[in-house]
Specification:
The protein is of the alpha+beta class and 514 residues long. The protein contains 19 helices and 8 strands. Helix 18 runs antiparallel to helix 19. The longest helix is centred in the last third of the chain and has 53 residues.
């Protein structure tokens, strides 16, 4: 018998689990008070009195007024009893299970992926049925609304294609850095003693570099400088480098070296030598797990160079004051002119100044929105007894509350869709691996990257706004309430994040000016 009176419901995260359960516990307490004090019976008494009063107002003409009054009372009474039984009586014990999310698969796809592929047995985490020893019960109608809403939301999320999450790859790549202080110093020495002189020679000779090669000669591991005579083969380290043995033909006239001691490698050797070269040692700074994931996406022989480039060049373009970057992508290939170049440069400067506060604000907003959603759902559940009693157990009001809850729960799908679009914008816009690798390594397209950051942030707000607007087309006023609740709940976190990001940026700028 106990199994028949249990409602096994599913939520998507533990916070929603706790908020939903708390909402029904408080809902039950409020309903018990209404039943105990007789408030729950007031709508039925009001129905009889209102129909009697209406009949009295119509006069004493002969006819079937008494029968009509009884019929009206009977018809409305049946409807109220049905609404009372299905939407107010807490008949089923709530048993909430949290969906088991496959974390590794979710990272790969860019959206939530349920374990076992969906709502199958074993796809759920631990179940909860009480808080502080108090158990919750739920009416039949709201249990069905919960089940259908979460089922539709999960089906919609499951329908989002699983594809490579380039954004997560970029974020994981950004977490890597050169941790070894000695290696950091050596990279700086290579920059000054090899890359700088090679770039100066290239500019002094006035050589023309193809557009496709311009990105290559903009970092210390340039393939052009390594393979073209007169560049890395002509410059040498400024001190003996460990791992490169003394070579009499090369080092006989150099100080602080001799047989059995480290020598002065050429820049080509210094960079590309196996196991002891800078490239090999930088390669070891990246975790093997990242390399496995990266190679599963990019198979070209030079793909790893883009990762190393990102490792040794954490900032590029406008972030380091250099606005002379290739701008290819959204703006098209119309050639442009002085005005377009000026507008682009101004936009990059403005974007760079505002991107940190914007990113900080949006990051906090994305973290806060699902929590705001859970709290608002709890608030709606707590309000249901008041709403149903005040509306005299109206089916219309129950329908509005139904679509309000569904709209609130379905916001999860729109946020997952926004994450997928964000994760796949690079793939959708740049079809070649070379372009994607350049984006990942921040080698070029800085302007496009800033645009992507703003598009990413706005999707988390615009898509839910479209959703509630469509509900408005259907005549559901609950959509406006959902939009207002989400906006009012998320804006403070976004504003605080932007304020923090702005303060960090101001302090950083002040430090540079000093």
């Amino acid at each position: 018998m106990g199994g028949l009176l249990t409602a096994p419901l599913v939520v998507f995260d533990y916070f929603a689990n706790a908020m939903t359960l708390l909402g029904w516990i408080i809902n039950n307490a409020i309903w018990n008070v209404m039943v105990g004090t007789g408030i729950a019976a007031v709508p039925f008494i009001t129905l009889v009195l209102s129909e009697w009063f209406k009949a009295r107002q119509e006069g004493d003409e002969a006819g079937t007024k008494g029968i009509l009054t009884v019929n009206r009372i009977e018809t409305r009474l049946y409807a109220m009893i049905l609404a009372y039984a299905f939407t107010c009586l807490p008949l089923l014990q709530v048993q909430l299970a949290t969906a088991d999310i496959d974390e590794s698969r979710s990272l790969e796809c860019g959206t939530r992926q349920f374990a076992s592929g969906g709502w199958s047995e074993g796809a759920f985490g631990a179940t909860e049925s009480s808080i502080g020893g108090q158990q919750a019960r739920i009416p039949l109608w709201w249990a069905g609304v919960h089940a259908v809403s979460h089922g539709l939301t999960a089906a919609a999320i499951h329908a989002i294609p699983c594809s490579t999450d380039f954004e997560s790859i970029r974020m994981e790549l950004d977490l890597h850095s050169v941790e070894d202080p000695g290696l950091q110093q050596e990279v700086g020495e290579f920059q000054r003693q090899c890359f700088g002189p090679a770039r100066n020679r290239l500019l002094q000779e006035g050589g023309t570099i193809e557009a496709t090669r311009a990105v290559d000669v903009d970092w210390i591991g340039s393939n052009y400088f390594q393979t073209t005579p007169g560049y890395y083969d002509s410059f040498y380290a400024g001190r003996p480098i460990a791992g490169f043995p003394y070579d009499a033909d090369r080092d006989v006239s150099r100080p602080n070296t001799g047989p059995g001691m480290p020598g002065y490698p050429s820049c080509r050797e210094w960079w590309s030598a196996e196991s002891v070269g800078l490239r090999a040692r930088l390669h070891e700074e990246v975790s093997p797990g990242f390399w496995d994931d990266f190679r599963s996406v990019f198979t070209s022989s030079d793909a790893e160079d883009y990762v190393i480039r990102r490792l040794v060049s954490p900032r590029s373009g406008a972030a380091s004051g250099n606005l002379d970057q290739a701008v290819v992508g959204f703006r098209g290939l119309d050639g442009g002119g002085f005005w377009d170049a000026t507008v682009t440069a101004g936009a990059m400067v403005g974007g760079t100044l505002s991107i940190l506060p914007f990113q900080a604000g949006m990051d906090m907003l994305k973290q806060a929105l699902p929590m705001v959603q859970g709290i608002l759902v709890m608030a709606i559940i707590i309000c249901l007894p008041f709403v149903m009693v005040i509306s005299s157990y109206s089916f219309k009001v129950a329908g509005m509350a139904t679509f309000g809850l569904f709209a609130m729960w379905f916001l999860t799908f729109w946020w997952e869709l926004a994450r997928w679009i964000n994760a796949n914008l690079v793939d959708l816009l740049y079809r070649s691996d070379a372009a994607k690798l350049s984006w990942l390594s921040a080698a070029n397209n800085l302007y496009d990257r800033m645009v992507l950051q703003f598009v990413e942030g706005m999707m988390f707000l615009v898509l839910p706004t479209i959703w509630v607007a469509v509900l408005g087309w259907a005549g559901l006023k609950s959509g406006a309430a959902v939009a207002k609740g989400i906006g009012d709940g998320g804006n403070p976190s976004r504003q605080s994040g932007e304020k923090g990001g702005g303060q960090m940026q101001s302090s950083g700028s002040g430090g540079r000016l000093k």
